[in-house]
Every structure is written in C-alpha cells, then in structure tokens.
Amino acid sequence: MDNRDFGVDPGQLGSAGNDLERELLRRVSQGDRDAFRDLYVRYHRRLARFLTRLLRRIEDAEEVINDTLWIVWQHAGEFRNASRVSTWIMGIAYRRALNMLRSATTRERAMVLETAQATDTAGDIARTLEERQLLEWGLAQLPLEQRLVLEFSYYLDHSCDEIAEIMDCPANTVKTRMFNARRKLRSILNVAASGMERRQ
C-alpha cells in the first residue's frame, strides 16, 4: 500500500505547504478573517475525508469540522510551531470526533450500521464493490485505533511521531497498532478476494 491507494492530496504535503499554513495561522491569531478563510478552504476537504470515514454521517463530520476550525480560530495564538500545522489541527479534530463517538446517539447509530453490515457476507460486499470501495470496507472492519493509525498515515501523510502526538500515546504504541492493522487488513482483504473468486 502507498499514499496513492488512499487518495492523499499531494498539494497539501511538504515543507512549503506547512510554511504557508504557519503563516496563515499566525495571521489568524491576529484576527485576520481572510487568512482564516484560506485555512478553512485548505482543511475542509481534508477533514471531511477523514471524519466521514470515522463518523459515517456527513452531518456529524460537518459538525466536528466546524467545531475544530472554531477552536483553531480561537486558539491559533497557542500554536508553538513544535509540529506541523496539520498535526495540530488533526489532533483537535481527532479529539472532537472521539467525543462524538462516545455519545449515546452515535453509539446507537454505529450499532445499527454494524447490524446491517452483519447481514451481508464478505462475498456479497466484494461482489458489489470495486477495488477502492473494498479497501474502504476493509478499513471499516478494523478496530477504531488500528484504523485511525492507517488513516493518519496513508490518507493524511502523518509520521509515527506525529500520529503519537495526535492520539496522545507513545510512538511505539502507534507502530504496534500499525503492524497489527496492516496484518488484519491484509487478512480481511484476502478473505474478501477469495469470496469474489468463488462467486465468479
């Protein structure tokens, strides 16, 4: 698997992009609404991709995006350049999303989704989904913490150290989750592929 498998937006990567975002954040800390609008445009799509996969509902993702960027507007002056801007913003989004996932209504929605998915066999899903959709489905089968390290790494191009900062855990924990996630995802996709072959 590489970044192309996960649809990373290369325009958002690299030191030049981070320098620009740091400048935008500095201006936001001074109340510059134009800079905030530019930062919002740069992050809305990135956050939406991540959060809709995590929360499943567009309405929930939009709520977390708005909460996250409101916090950025209020606390931009607290950013100390100790990490990439994206690491700081994704950390905020991650914590807001976890809060939402812990809410009773979201747990109920997740249970309904899991029940519906349980009625389908791996072969049924594999037959109706194309390769990219199958990968998304495979990711969704992983435990939350394992799925998130893959999301942060492959979709959002964060290093192990940055993921550790976002998720507030040791880097070795991230590496262990990454190893287990890759192994489990490979197994899930192999089972799904076998089901497709049998049906063909």
Describe the structure.
With 200 residues, the protein is mainly α. The chain is built from 10 helices and no strands. It has helices spanning 15-29, 33-55, 58-75, 85-101, 104-118, 122-128, 131-140, 144-155, 160-167, 171-199. Helix 7 (131-140) crosses helix 10 (171-199) and helix 9 (160-167) crosses helix 10 (171-199). The radius of gyration is 18 Å and the shape is globular. Residues 1-13 and 119-129 have low confidence and may be disordered.
Instruction: Indicate the structural class.
Output: mainly alpha
Low-confidence sequence ranges: 1-13, 119-129
How much beta, percentage-wise? under 5%
Integer average pLDDT: 78
Could you state the oligomeric state of the chains shown?
single chain
Question: Could you give the count of β-strands?
Answer: 0
